Amino acid sequence: MLRIEERVAFLDGRVREQGDTMNDLREQFRALRDQMDRRFEHVDARFDAIDKRMSKQFTWLFGLMVTLQAATIASVAAMLAK
Q: Which residues of 38-62 are buried (b: 16+ CB within 10 A; e: fewer)?
């Protein structure tokens, strides 16, 4: 049978090992979080570029729709004026 001092020393060693393991896990999670942040920054940059392009396309599309609507109204008004 182990004596109390040996048991305490064994448990102390185990607790230190678990503490080291927890510190290692914290570092790994921190590295993973940093890696994910960098990846999301890259994705955000891509969405910003797509958003700018879509905004420009929407402006052109809206302009075309307004122009076509104005031309249609002008045509109907010209036909009614005759």
A: eeeeeeeeeeeeeeeeeeeeeeeee
Residue 2's contacts (CB-CB under 8 Å, 6 or more residues apart) are: 10
Indicate yes or no: pTM above 0.90. Answer: no
Taking only the tens place, the pLDDT of each residue in 32-74 is: 999 999 998 888 888 888 888 888 888 899 999 999 999 999 9
Among residues 21, 23, 25, which one has the least CA distance to residue 13?
Answer: 21
